[in-house]
């Protein structure tokens, strides 16, 4: 019988992000402060208010997917499969390989994949066919793909990843809007802590750059109207910010029980020392400026690892670039970290890779894990004009070498969800 | 405690494979409850189902054997080849949802809001001052279908400006959870799980993790509203829906003429409370205790399905081991009952592997309502608790000639039976297997 808490570490990372290829391409891009936002190319955006997005130049065949895998799956599932492939290869685990001496039992491998909007792009594309571009309320089954059921229910993303790696442990898709990515990794950690798995493939994926998604954020003016300068359209924490830039992508982490990883001599990026989420019970899209619930989530996540706020070396922000979010989040970080908030670097990747809804939380965790491993903090691109309500150190434009023994990543989403996860160097405290 | 059982400091069983395989149905493999286990009680039920709105309405309809699967109303479904479904015909959203919220939300969320209200009323639950003490952890399957189809039709027929402000909050899978949390002021750790039909049980599995980590009350379960043109078409493409035009021919689980299933809408939301918290507030009723949960994945998908029921059976064994319950203590199994011959055969294989041939009464009450995706397994939990209360195993509908080779004791007429422990099973399209063990509430832990 084990007397100590089961600890969770990250031993593999895979990333599909705009403007880059794979984990190392992504890291190179964000530490160079390069942006991947551009005028939308997937469809003609001229009738939309917001015409900018961070698109992934994705060729699934070149990245190892078969023609049939691409045919039956929406883009968001394809992203997750490719990210999982890279993460598992990175971890050195031989999942699904019978007889390999260090291969984990398939029954001890779980999958938790987050997604805010699932296969919305495919559902829309197919809808256009079966409704003849919106002409008919009663859709025409003769034009339907036979893979529409998978599109309707996003759990197919967990299925495809489980099939790929013969993961027979618990599997699920987590769909808490824009905190899905943090929550999926948080749930994955809990599966390991609770002893229900030794390894979990945890991450998130979204591919929402489609007319319906752009239209629905247009009407509430959540997205930017800065179409004239797409490369600099996403301005988190800057006084000129006017909304987020839609993005897409995926990241998958290999979460592993610490001793399991140590036994096989795995390279460890960092430990997941805490995860918590709270609801603000306030409004589906609105945020109170005080940030109380996000702060509560952050406090709880820090407390789980017995970490004091002063130990935090990097805050990976939600930083969507909407007026209210960045103010809300700044207040939350001040509430939790107190005076230390003013000296800790805090940056938003959404300035570079846009806001990929549920996926972004996992992409941000990937970046935060790399920041802990490499002791480098990625910047906030496009940050120039300070906002008196956002008065922290947002790491403008240039990456920074910094001591990061502990980092936090926070997220906030429609529905009122507030999530926080804490990553730390595994040797920062005794086992 | 046997050698095969390892329990960590959070009270969870980490290695149970040996127990499950090596222990005969008789005898208890685990004699003491795991240390530090949080006892989780069901203190409130809210049902919005084709069988009725309200717990008793649903239960009486089941006991009367009324088939709630009927010809689809609301649109002409004839072109889809599937013409029957379980619709919630007497649902009045205005009873539960104020007008300004109603225009922002899909029928799916109306049903969730209604079921959450009914569950809280049933429990007499007055949220404590500490808003973080209550969580909403629901399952979702397909989101706000009807709302979204309207908006997307407008977009393509008329252009982006016709898309309303509420599409961004009405369609996505977290909409119902968010709205319940906001309306009722629940700020605890909340979440949404999607594992198709298994979601209702999985939300309970996750709620246990939330409770173990200190949140005393969690709303779980979920609803679904996919009997709409586009969502129906999407479900038809699974190839698992019956095309029989007569309701009694359509959804016949474990029958020789099984030919697919009917879909339905609605579901159930349950209030789970940690035992001490429930006692402290003087909970008026305990429906039962959640004592075990197990989930596995086939690691096979729909195009290349699992060849056998190994993982499904393992989910059941995990749940029993988690509960510290031996198979022969189980008085009833509520089956997933897919109504697709291959899937019925696999489920029978799983059940008989764990409980033996004809080892336990098996029922599939979704035959009366249709399969409600994420809402269905939640509704089956409510049904199981009602069965335990009244000591009646409700019958499976539409079964004329059960397949003898399945080796199941399939309950075809309501059967009186004292039920102390029941098991609810669920599967989700794409290889998800889940099992839940419920036990009649006793003040003191047995053993």
UniProtKB/TrEMBL annotation, chain A:
Sorted alphabetically, the Gene Ontology BP terms of this entry are:
fatty acid elongation
Start and end residues of each Ketosynthase family 3 (KS3) domain? 5-425
Do the record's keywords include Membrane?
A: no
Q: Which PROSITE patterns match?
A: KS3_2 (PS52004)
Under the heading InterPro entries, the entry gives:
Beta-ketoacyl_synthase, Ketoacyl_synth_C, Ketoacyl_synth_N, PKS_Beta-ketoAc_synthase_dom, Thiolase-like
Superkingdom of the organism of origin: Bacteria
Q: Which GO terms describe its molecular function?
A: 3-oxoacyl-[acyl-carrier-protein] synthase activity
SMART domains in alphabetical order: PKS_KS
Which Gene Ontology CC terms are recorded? cytosol
Q: Any idea which UniProt keywords this protein has?
A: Acyltransferase, Transferase
**Stated family:** Belongs to the thiolase-like superfamily. Beta-ketoacyl-ACP synthases family.
PANTHER family in the record, alphabetically? 3-OXOACYL-[ACYL-CARRIER-PROTEIN] SYNTHASE, MITOCHONDRIAL, POLYKETIDE SYNTHASE-RELATED
- Name-wise, this protein is Minimal PKS ketosynthase (KS/KS alpha)
Automatic annotation (TrEMBL), chain B:
Q: Which residues form a coiled coil?
A: none
Q: Which InterPro entries match?
A: Beta-ketoacyl_synthase, Ketoacyl_synth_C, Ketoacyl_synth_N, PKS_Beta-ketoAc_synthase_dom, Thiolase-like
Domain (Ketosynthase family 3 (KS3)) spans 37-440
Q: Keywords of this protein's UniProt record, alphabetized? A: Acyltransferase, Transferase
Q: Does the keyword Acyltransferase apply?
A: yes
Q: What Pfam families does this protein map onto?
A: ketoacyl-synt, Ketoacyl-synt_C
Can you cite a GO biological process for this protein? Answer: fatty acid biosynthetic process
The domain of life for this entry's organism is Bacteria
Q: Name one GO molecular function term.
A: 3-oxoacyl-[acyl-carrier-protein] synthase activity
Similarity annotation: Belongs to the thiolase-like superfamily. Beta-ketoacyl-ACP synthases family.
Can you name this protein?
Answer: Minimal PKS chain-length factor (CLF/KS beta)
Please tell me the species this chain comes from.
Geodermatophilus obscurus
